[in-house]
Amino acid sequence: MPRYVGIALPVRMQQLFTYCVPDTLGVGQTVLIGCRVLAPFAKRMLTGIVIEEYESRAIAENHARRHHGSSLPSNATLRDVVEILDSTPMFNQTMLAFGAWIAEYYACSLGDTLRAMLPQGMSPESVVRVRTLREITHDHIEEMKKRAPRRAELLHILRDHVGTLTIGYLERLLNSDNINAQIEALEADGWIERERGMTEHVKPKMRKAIMIPPALVNDEEEFHLILQTVEKASSKQARLLSAIYLHYQHSEDPLFISDICKQTNTTPAIVAALISKGYAEEFSALQHRTAHRDLATLAQRDEAHVALTLEQRHAVEKIISALDTHQNKTFLLHGVTGSGKTLVYMRAIEHARAQGKTTLLLVPEISLTPQLIDRFRLVFGESVALLHSKVSAGERYDAWQSSARGEARIVIGARSAIFVPLPNLGLIIVDEEHEPSYKQDSPDPRYHARDCAIVRGRMEKAVVVLGSATPSLESMYNAHAGKYHLLTIEHRADGATLPQLRVVDILAERKKRAMRGSFSTTLLQAIADRVQKKEGVILYQNRRGFASRIECHECGTIPQCPNCSVALTYHKFSMNLRCHYCGYSRKAEHHCTSCGSPDIHEVGAGTQRIEEELHEHLATMNISAVIERMDLDTTTKKGSHKQLLTNFAERKTDILIGTQMVAKGLDFSHVTLVGVVYADMSLFVPDFRAGERTFQLLTQVAGRAGRSGTHSGEVIIQTAHPTHQSMVAVLTGSYETMYNDELQDRRALLYPPFARFVVIEFSGKEDQLVHLHANYFAGALPKSNQFFQRLGPAYPTIVRLRNAYRRLVILKSSKEHDPRGVELRAALHKAFTEYYGKHRTSSIHITVNIDAQGVI
Ligand code: ADP
Ligand code: ZN
Ligand code: ZN
Description:
Helices cover about 35% and strands about 20% of the residues.
């Protein structure tokens, strides 16, 4: 019997699509819901997820008519699914419900959402490939011919081919339009495997590994006897054998032959000799690409047995007792920098693990420092799986798989890790919950991982812990409103005190002629002092590249990106002007492109410039210091980030200069000075969160200093606006001041946490048309009323992005009057229906960003 299903496809339309699963595919598969299927859509082949199954053709057709509206003629036949890609569902009911919530709340399609929930590479666009797994001989084919001639034909073709083949190609060769049954049978017998559209490096790799036959060795003594025997014949074989033995003493991971050869400086021939004598056995194993890196661990000590402070203990106890109730509860852990929040997480995780539960730990991309990972690895070992953009797609795929199977008890990952299915999820921790990188701005779904964590926690009955030294206004507001349980740690752990903050007024210093370029003499002297004492220095400058832009001193022209109407960034190393939005780049000119004057200068100092300046200053002061820079430009190569930190930890580097990367998560006890070169950088940007962000950034970076009880820390902040409200809050170290000041402004202007900030963007090739359509759409939205404020259409800061003109319409939807967002969704739905009904065109692209972080 054919079966009938409703599928979510990765297209903009938000409805389900109805398909038939023909007899040849659907029999034997018990559960279809949650499985990926390959389905023809228009002229393409798409991968969708089965969401519903219908009892009969009539019901299916009813659904189809409802979903497709009048576009389905009454006599139309339902199209067939081409292939079912999973034998067991990729999504369970909870994850499907979670996806449905995201699609609804963020106003995007379920298909797009579910696709984003799978790791990269598991969502093939259309191609399914076949790869041969073992050698096929003439005899094999002859043997197969007797029972399955079609399969024998297939084996024949596969034997003569190197690499992978698409199923479509095989079907053409065999002159058949469906060879799925044969392929499945061959796969079941282990001849081949299907690659579900994944590129080869994403596929888990099988490699040759080696072990000592379990029957051979029962105890250490026996092993020594064997080793003596081997030693007499060959010392190299003995060395290899003992290395294998040692490996399995402390690890259950497969030992790969190529790795052990490298380590022991032996050859495959020696391995073969050992195997032929029966002392070792070869086998194939999945390579876990998350295997250890070569560099030393950055964790300063094993934190598994550190005694907690009173405040930490209180926090841990609250979380643990929530875990014991097996109910959903959300905590906001507000602990000053260096208060030992990480330790609180560790103890909570330990408790969850003892209960047999799994933990998801979200960390913002930028603070996903190797150090934090090393700290968890040291305490929890191999039960930690990592998912973030610094590991390769292959590693991420492995980690995802082992998490889904429940092998990894603790998953640490950036934003998208919130989508990892984990059996028996008990605890979700969102570290640095205030970080903007938790919000995905493009493409759909434009979700906020922290907010999704709250929802997922509710669905899974898990305990959620949001941690920060500088909580977002939204979370603190929720805590005050009683939605979250607030846990506070006011003191640093380990007897350390918060660092002393000193402000340097740049304008005043300049008048006193006490500025040397970007540095005040105060800061320079403090740096020199620490370098001589061999204490660590961190300098923070919130900008990358050598200089942000080039300006003509004659006519004032700043070179602009021809596509994006933003200033181009000057990269001195490559002598390039580069657009950080669209990637446009060109060689820097020696003369002004507008007036021809050679009088052109760099304005605004990036990290590279700061580094060069500092070198010069220290040289004139006769001080030699090793300076390293840590920003996106110096850390893109895999491992380089960790290398920089290792050098700093081992004190090979005296001064670490960097962007936000040095502001967060670093815990080095020898750092006693943090210098903020220009604190105002983030203060004057067109963003309603500018004040909050500046406070957060500066507080975080200041928190890198004086993290041990033995060395107290100092922070020097250079600013031209020492009396600005956010700066005062930073200098007095008062979160409450910032919170109260900001909250008042937000309430007055209806911004979060009092509203949902929704940005609807229109873009297209023709400026006038974009403007017109933005107006049409705005007209279809309700005028400002108790539920909303409607703004625009407005010109964004960047009018032209990637060759398209843009306009924005902004909705601020009152949380007081529309707490669940029902009115907002209804209004958006109505506007889209009306707009598409009258003005639909493919020349205009529209995106909706719910809870947008800001406007660019
Ligand atoms: P946070 O994440 O709150 O900034 P961390 O968890 O990184 O703080 O802790 C800061 C430092 O203090 C770390 O080196 C940590 O090992 C140490 N630490 C934390 N708790 C304790 C404790 N109870 N006793 C001693 N040292 C501690
Ligand atoms: Zn000029
Ligand atoms: Zn550009």
